[in-house]
Design a protein that fits this description.
- With 119 residues, the protein is mainly α.
- The chain has 5 helices and 2 strands; from the N terminus they run ββααααα.
- It is 72% helix and 5% strand.
- The chain has a two-stranded antiparallel ribbon with strand order 1-2.
- The longest helix is centred in the C-terminal third of the chain and has 30 residues.
- The two termini are 38 Å apart.
């Protein structure tokens, strides 16, 4: 558990270093699998991956460990997306108002603030 941090509610969450290691492992595996290999070598590698009991157990463990991707997770991401859209429309409306001259007097700080919020 040393590579985990504890989130509110006592739930263990992997820290950023372990996530980075997982990312690099996945990228290395992907590069190894798509590397141009002779047909017979590629056939042996994929046959080993599809028939190996060890690989099957690893795949099963990964499926269990990534179960938290539930509809609740997707609804939370959807709420964040809708919030981002609302903020974008609000900033665009404020920007248009400032450009038309009806908003507060525009100076460099106001323009910089609007540009930063748009970013």
């Amino acid at each position: 558990l040393s590579s985990y941090i504890f989130a509110p509610g006592g739930r263990a969450v992997p820290n950023s270093k372990s996530i980075e290691i997982l990312f690099h492992d996945k990228m290395g595996t992907f590069c190894a699998l798509v590397a141009p290999l002779p047909y017979t070598a590629r056939k042996k590698v994929f046959k080993f991956l599809s028939e190996s009991v060890i690989i099957a157990k690893i795949a099963y463990a990964l499926k269990i460990s990534f179960i938290p991707l539930t509809p609740l997770t997707y609804s939370f991401v959807g709420i964040l997306f809708v919030d981002a859209l609302q903020r974008m429309f609000k900033i665009a409306a404020e920007s248009d108002l400032a450009k038309s001259g009806q908003g507060p007097i525009g100076d460099v700080r106001t323009e910089t603030n609007i540009a930063a919020r748009k970013f």
